[in-house]
Structure formats: C-alpha cells, structure tokens
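Cont'd.
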Amino acid sequence: MTLLELEGVHTYYDESHVLQGVDLAVEEGEIVALVGRNGVGKTTTLRSILQLTPPREGVVRFRGEDVTSEHTHEVADRGVGWVPEERRTFGYLSVEENVRVAVRSDQDFDALREYVFDLFPALERFREKEARNLSGGQQQMLAIARGMVGDNDLLLVDEPSEGLAPMIVDQVVEALREASAETTMILVEQNFPLAMDLADRFYLLDHGTVVESGPTADVSADDERIRRYLSA
Amino acid sequence: MTDSSERPLEVEETNRGTRTDEGWLSEYARDHVVHGLVIVAFLVYPVVYDLLGRSPLASEAAAFLPGLTFMIAVLYLGLFAMSFDFVSGYTGYLSFGHAAFYGTGAYAVVLATNGKIPGVPADTPFVLTMLLGAVLAGVLALAMGAVSFRLTGVYFAMITLGFAQVLYELVRNWGYVSPNPSEGATVDGGALEVGVPYVDSLGLAVGRLTGDSFENVLGTGFDVSATMTSYYALALVVVVCYFSMQRIIHSPFGKAMIAVRENEERAEAVGYDVFRIKMGAFAASAFFAGIAGALFAGYSRSVSPESTYFFLVTADALIVTIVGGIGTLAGPLYGTVFHEWLGDVLSTEDDGIATYLRETVPEGLLTTDVGGVTFADVINSVVDGRAPLYLGIVFVLFVLFVPNGLLGTVRDRLGGTVAERTGDVLERYRR
Amino acid sequence: MTGDVVALTAAVPDVALLADAFGRFFQPSTFARLVVEGLGKAAVYFIIAVGLTLVFGLMGVLNFAHGAFAMLGSYLGGVLVVVALAGGAGPIASIAFFVVAAAVVFAVMTVVGGALEVTLVRPIYDRTPTYQILMTFGIGLILEETTRIAATLRGVQPEPPWLKARGTLPGFLETRYDVLGANVRGFYVFEIVLGVLVAAAVWLFLTRTLYGLYIRAGSEDPEMVEALGVDVRKAFTVVFGLGTGLAAVGGVLLMWDPLWGASVLLNIEVLLYAFVVVIIGGLGSFKGTLVAAVVVGVADSFTTWLFSTGIVTFSGLSEVTVFLLLVVVLIVRPQGLYGVEEVGGH
C-alpha cells in the first residue's frame, strides 16, 4: 500500500525556487533513499512533507489523504517522525525528557522509555543527563529514538552519518536497521554506498526534480547516470 | 565589486543620467519637484491658517487644524524622528537610546547659553552652540557605538537603551545643570537667533515670547508673529538637515548602510567595512538628533530630563517612524504631523474638537443625561486630552495592516520614491 | 560626557564620613539589614521579570506590554483590596485577602494575555522581531491610556501612586522586626516569602508538568517541538497568558510596596527594570532571572544605603547603578549570566 505520495511539489524559500515539481511515492515497509548533491532539495523535500516549509504548489498525501494544508504538528500526529539534520536534540533537557516531548498524550511514557533503552542500551546510563553532554553518536541515537517513539509509521531521517566517526556510523546504521523493522523510512544521505546499502529503492534529485529512481540493487556509484549527478 | 543586487541600481542610475541631454540642474529640479511642493506647503501653512482664522470658518480651523505651536513641534520632533529612521530604518539597528542624542543637543544649548560649558562664552551664537551640541551628540554616539555595535538585534536595542537611561538618571540628579535638576533647566539670557553667526541682520530670534516679530510685512497688512518667525527659522534648519541626510542615503555610503540592513554578512563578504559604516551612520544620525534637540531647546528655552533624555522620547520617534514609514527618511516627518495634529485637535491647549463641540453643540444636548452620563461627560472623557489613546490604537492598526507606513506604502504602490516617480511622470507629460 | 566627570567630583567623599560609614557597614546589623532589604527588592524584581523571560524564552518576543500588564494588575488588585479591606481587617485576614486578590488577578490577566496573543501578536510572528516589539509596545500604550481614563472617571489620580490602595497595607507589615540580627520592616520579609513562593511555583510548573517540558523544549527549538506533534502555537498562547498573569501578580505586590505603588507610571518603570533583570540574567533563562534579580536587588539596597549615609551625595546613585549593571553585562557578556550564546537567533 502506498504510504506517502508527492505530486508536482513546488517549494520556495522566499523567492528561491527549491523544489521544482517533485514526484515520489513510498510504499509501506520500505526504506527509500533520497540522494543527490548538496542543495538539490533533499532536506527541503522532507520539510515539505512535514509542512515545515509548506509547498506553494502540488500535493502531499499520507495514507491517501491530502495533508498539504495542515499544520506541522497535525502531520506529525498522523504518524510522521523526523530525525533532522544535525540531530537537534534538546541540549538542556535530559535524555528522558527528550523522549518525553515526543510521546503522544495517549501513549504510555514508562513503557516507551524502556522500549527506547532496549533499542539503544548505550543511552540508558545517561537517562538523567542533559543531552548536550552526549557524544555525537549518542545524540544521533537519541534523535532516532525521539523520532520513533510517537508510534510513527514513517520516519524522515536526514543525514544521520554526517560528522560521525566511521565506527560510530556503524552503530547508527545498526540502529536504523533496527528501526526500519518497525517503520517505513525516507533516508537522506550524502554517503552514497551507505544509502544504497540501507535502502530498498532510491530517488536521485537534481535541481529540485527527480532525475533517476529505481531499486538500489541494480545501481552502483560507478553508473554513468548516477555519477554525473553526484560529482561536483 | 560584482555584487548582483547592486547592479540593477547602478543600471538604473545610468539610465537616469543619460536619459536626456538637458543640464543636470533641471534634472535635479525635476527630481525634487515633490520636495519643493512639500516645502511650499509648509511655507504657506501658517499664512493659510492665519487667513482661515479671520474667515467665517475660524472656529472650524482652530478645532480641526494643528495650530502653529504644534507645527513647530512637528519641525524639531520630525527632525528627531527622521534622524532615528536614518540609523534604525537604513541599517536595521534599532537605536533605542536615541533620546540621549536629542537630550545632549538640548542640554548643550542651555548649558552653553548659561555659560556653564567651560571655554564656551555665554554669548556664543545659537547656531554655534547648536552645532556644538550636535557634535557632542555625534561623539557620544561614537563612544556608545564602539561597544554597542558588537551586539545585534534586541541586544543592540537594549544596550543603547541602557546607556540612555544612565545618562537620564545622571542628568536628572546632576546639580550643576540647575538648582533643581530633576525639573530641568532654563535659558537665562536673551533670545536665541537662527542665522549667520555674528551678523545681526542675518539672524532671526526664535521663541514663543522672545522671537522676532514683524508688523505689516512689506505693506501687505500682514503681521508675522514671533511664533511664525520661529516656525520659519526652525524650518530652514530642518530643510537643510533633511537634504543632508537624503544626500547621504543616496550616496555610496547610504547604499552601504542598506547593504548592512539587508544582509550584514554578505555586505562584509563583498568588502564593506561594516563596523565603520555602522559607526558612521550612528554618529551622523546622532548629529542630526542633536540638532533637533538644540532646536527644541532654542525654541522652548527650557529643557527637562523627561522631555529630552527619557525613553518615551525615543518611543515617540519610533511610533511616528512606523506610522510614517520606516526606512523612508521623510516618512517620519509625516508621521510627526499626524501625531501633533492628533495631539492638538484632541486637547484644549490650542483649541480643538472638544472646545469646538462645547461651543457649538446646543446646551440642551450637552447636558442631556443618558443613564447618568451626559454628552459633556463623553467629550471630557473620550475626546479631551485623549490623543495618546487614539495614537496607540492607530499605531497598532498600522503595525497590523500598514507595516510599511504611510510613505512606505505609497512608494510600494508607485514602485519607487515619490520624488523619482513624479519626475518620471512629469517627463512623460512633457513629451 | 562631562556629566560623569562633574557628578563624580561632586561625589568625592568626606574622609571622616567615610571612616564612620565604613565602621557602620561592618556592623553585623547594618550588613544583615542591607542583605534582607536587598532580597526583598530582589523578590520584587524577580516577580516583575520572570514572565518576560518565559515569553522571550519560548517565543523570542520581547514583550513591551509587560509593564502595562503589571500596571493593570496593580489597579485590579488595588480595587479588590480597597473594596475588601477598606473597613480594616486583622493581619491574617489582610494577608489572606491579598493572596486571594493576587490569585484572581492572575487568573483574569492570564486569560486577557492569552486573548491578546491570539488576536494581535499571532498574526505577526512571521515578521521580523521589530514588529513584535512594536505591536506589544502599542498594546502597552493603549492599556496605559485606557487605565488613565478609567481611573480618572472613577476619581482616582492616575499618578502619583494610588494612596488608598497602598493604605490597606496592614500595620504589622509596616513595623520593624529583628530578622537574623537585622532590624527590617515586615514588608520586606513578606516580599521575600512571596518571591520564594512564585519562584517555586514557576519552577515546579517548568520542571514537573508536561506543559513546562514543552516550554523548555520550545525555548531551545520550537520547530523541532512542533515536528514532534506538539501544537506550539497553543503553547505560545498559554505562555503569553502566564507571562501576563505573572506580570499582573507583580503589579498587585507593587500596589502595596512603599517604593512603587499603583500608578500608570508602572507601565514604563516596570518595563525598564524587568528588561534590566532579564537581560543581565540572560534572555529566556529562568535561573538567570533569579540570580540577576538578587544581584540587582542587593546592588539597589547597598547603593541606596550608600547615598543615605552621605558618603555619596549623588541622589540618583541607585538608578544609575542598576542601568550601569545592564550596560556592563552587555559589554562583558552579551548573552547575560546564564544566557545561551545563540539566543539572538530566534
């Protein structure tokens, strides 16, 4: 079943026309990678889905329903989680409190808290610590956990490996694999091999439109059609 | 410099320059048609007001038009508001301590005239003490700016406000100013003259009671009162100041100020010395604020901490700047006209709507009692002296619905400054 | 400025006076009195500033109507106590009624603040911060003038302070008591108690309630909170309402305070002092506001004493000190004592 659909989405930052007609669809249960150079509109696509930067034209459908005129918190309430670029954990809140913000009012916080610490045991001993004291990798795990606890069906993950040491990246990838067992995922990732490794399908963006797409199994970074969009 | 946003402006300038073969003088004149019209309007206003006062519409004129003393306030407060807009509207740095410069100009004049500034004789001409006050204000701005321009946004606004409040408290409690510093100080000597220093025939004494007056001017049977003389003398200074500020804004330096406002990081990246531009703009705006304060002191001959250094003086400038249009320079003057007009017609100080209603509404209606409240009560409570209330309401409505202010909105409609557009329109009609 | 120089030369102290005062200063009783009085003033500064910091912390709006809300609170509280206590009441009844009045004013003004946020402030969030300053300043102007009209119509002078309301202060708070070796007026102790209660209540709200959590998270990153499914706009309304209510409670306290009193002048006076405290502490920081209130309160009490001894003959010493503190903090540490470096980026 199609979980998310974007149809002819045009998004602007003031006068700059960032998304120039993006079409894409995400099926339930899969991991879809958005790849492309810096500034082609990957993050903006995620922001448009969540209505953080509402599209001026086009439609975003979640479970077949148009969400384009909704507020961000309403879209999030439908079951869309966000793991933003640079993690954006609440530095002056404890790890527990970071999770607490994301828990919906009808959910059981205690159960979800234990679920998070089961998923990411590394976080448990910092539960009372302010998040700004965590390492980059731990903050990334916290951000992923925060994106998942709201009983979300779709997780938007933006640059999870950015600025992390290779060993930590492996841990984060492991965490994402665990998460993907529970939810559908859109992954924005600069590291092309990593993205192809994790995802089932990919969309390649350039200048605000989708230029290539397909299953990740049959592509590699050496492909001519991929390479000319990725090299600077 | 290859900044893309600069280029359209340059192209426009070049077009304007090569548009005709006429001399620059006539082009200059055409670009300033609107300025001329405004100046003429200000020039004839006292005469028209005076004539109306002798016509059958006398009481209506007194009730609904601003009196001359209010128009004089328009001049010095308008100049102050324009100087506020000069830095706040064009560099984007809200100068919340701007009253400090106004106060410095005002107190400098009073202290100098009373012989209390060492090295400045008491009989120094007003024009020179005015310049002295303005320079002091400029120097003060450099000192304040040196530390304040390390901050931006709200923090800049707050530190300048902090400086001004410190000065306000100092002046309020500084016994050297006068025996009763919290009440302010007054000019002891004779009338102060606007004109060429040390040349008696080229000076006009200002002040409501001390100014020069002329009877039966040029045999027209028309008398020029002391107030009217003050009005014209002050207007002369304000016009000179306005054109000076306008010149700066249209110079490369002014372009740099706007570049700082639009995007400071980019302005720095394309090679502007941002700090010096901000300091220069701040000092220049303080200079003109100092002149405004000096004019106020010269005309009213008495200053108080409340009417000069206090935060509300800045707040008034802020209000009229928003109503007139922030970042338009001339807008704040129109905002001040509106402010003073409202203040006049809603008070009884110089006749106004309340006086008019009390005199024209039949006695029976005035005392008609509706639920314990008479019409006269209504006049007293919602009209008389209620200008600040209506000003507040108008202000909020402007912030909500006319955020660009009067002049800013007109410019948006016309697609350029009024002076430019009028020039273009005239050009079209001549062909 | 030449002003500073002459003011300072005029303030050159008399040696004998100085020695005398120096001795007195280190008498435990003087020192303790100054500290207790300083804490009393600190409590007032804290209560009038804490709402301002909450609103700025979450919304990034510097609320220029804050002083007007305190002013309105002082009159509403004044009306309530004048009606209830005019005939005289016992100490306990007086205090109890004061608390009831403060609670009623808090409730009413919280609703008023919320309504103002929805109708007037919300439409301009997407503009530059300047317009929020302008809007709230305009609201303050209108409230001040409306209050002036209403007071005048009811035969109350809008300035100087409303003596009838102040007169309901029970006598036992006017008399002096020995507290910790200091001989101080009972009212200072009352203020300290009230300040501690308000601080504790706000702190509990922020740390122990879900809404407090949303507010703390939103102060760091409102967009992130929104993306986690929280209606941040509603939180804005609630916080603006609470900030208004807290300002009004501050006003109710000022109505009894001999140094302030209910008057329309509170609009600007409270605003200026609240700014000083909030900026010294760091805009948006609860802890910073608390510490800054103590710093400003104690500095105020010591400089006031310094003037009263005749060591310094400059009568504006206390006010100048307070604003100099603001300037110095902004120069040395622009983000304030506990502010986050990045707060300007809202």
